[in-house]
Amino acid sequence: MSKLLNCDECKNMPWQDRPEGSFRPVWRYSNNPITKREYNENIDRIFNSALVPFDGEFIGVFRADTYQNRSFLYVGHSKDGYSIELEDKPLVLHNENGEVLPNVGYSRFDPRVIKIEDVYYVVFCEYTNAVTTAIAYTKDFKNFTQINNPFTPNYRNGVLFPRKINDYYKILLRPCDAGNSNFGDIYVSESKDLHYWGNAKLLLSAGFSGWNWTKIGGGPAPIETDEGWLILIHGVTSTCSGWIYSMGGIIVDKDDPSKVLYRCDDFLLTPDTDYEKTGFTPNVVFPTSVICDGKTGRMAIYYGASDTYTGLAFTQIDILVDYIKKHSK
Ligand code: BMA
What separation in Å is there between the alpha carbon of 95 and the centre of ligand 1? Predict the structure, then answer.
C-alpha cells in the first residue's frame, strides 16, 4: 500500500468515494464543474487554477479570463474546496525592487501554488515580450513579490518541487516550440536560490503513448510518496478535429527527480463530459493542483476543463500508484 510522505492531515478536504463498479484510477466529482461561466460582470471563465489548505480552509490563485478573453490572476477563497469566491481585484505583484509590475491583462495565466517550508510560491506563465515561466512568492496571499526574470523566454508549464532535494530547489520546465527543437518535452532544472537555474536534464519526452504524441507538460506540484515523486502531467494528441488534452502520471526517483521509475502508458483522465468536450477550447483536461490528506491518502485533483470551467476529480494514493506501476512501460 503506497503512502503519502510529508503530507499533513486535511480533514475537511473535498471527497467522494469511488463510484461502485468503477475500475478507473481517477473519478470525477458528481457535481462538476465547480466553477460556472459568467462568474461576475468582469470574469467569464475560471480554470487552470491552484488551491492549497490555509488556516483550516482553502486559498488559491485562480486564472480568470474576462469578456475580452484576457487572463488575470486572482486570489480566491474556499471554505470547503468546492465553492470558490474570488477577491474583487486581480492580485498585485511587486518586483524585488518593490515596484508594482504592470498588469496588462493578457499576460499571466496557469498558476500553480507550491508551499516550500512556510512560503507559498506561485509559478505561472507570463507573456511580456514572449511567453515564459515566472515565480512569485507570498506568505499571506496579500503581498506577492515576483522574482526578477529567473528564465529567458520560451519556458512554459513551470512547476516547483515542494521541498529542496539535496539542497537544491528543483523545477519542471517545458520549453515551447521554437521551430527547430523537440516540441513539448519536460526538463528538470535546479537552483540554490530560485534566481539562477541550471544543470537542466531531460526528464520525459512527448510521444511515449498515443495520448501524448504532440506534447506534454507539468501539472500540479509533485507529490512525495514512499515510491518516489508522483508527478501528474498533461499530454496532448492531435486528431482530425484538433488537439486533445489528457492527464497522465509518472513516478520519479526521490533523490534524483530526473530519473523516471514508472511512466504510465494509459491516460488517467481524458475529455469525456460535456464541460470537458465543449467550451472555449474543446477537449481539454488540464490538471493544475492537488489537495491531499496525509492520513487517509485521499487526493482531490483540480483541473481546467475546456479552458472554461474548473473540474474536480478524486483518487487515492494507493489506487493511483498501483495503477501507474501496473500500466508502466
Ligand atoms: C496550453 C495552455 C493552457 C490551455 C491549454 C489548452 O497551451 O495555454 O492555458 O489550457 O493550452 O488550450
Answer: 26
Atom of ligand 1 nearest to the CA of 307: 10
Query: What predicted TM-score, i.e. pTM, was given to this entire model?
Result: 0.97
- Other CB atoms within a 10 A radius of the CB of residue 327 amount to 18
301-to-189, 316, 319 alpha-carbon distances in Å: 25, 10, 14
pLDDT at 148: 93
CA 154–ligand 1 middle distance (angstroms): 14
The domain spans of the chain are 27-326
Question: Contact at 8 Å (CB) between 38 and 125?
Answer: no
Separation in Å, CA 306 to CA 30, 68, 102, 104, 173 = 18, 17, 28, 24, 23
Please give the grid coordinates belonging to residue 221: 506540484
For 323, list phi and psi in degrees, rounded to 5.
-65, -45
> Who wins on pLDDT, 102 or 190?
190
Superfamily of domain 27-326 in the CATH hierarchy: Glycosyl hydrolase domain; family 43 (2.115.10.20)
Cβ neighbours of residue 149 closer than 8 Å, sequence gap 6 or more: none
pLDDT per position as a tens digit, 257-271:
999 999 999 999 999
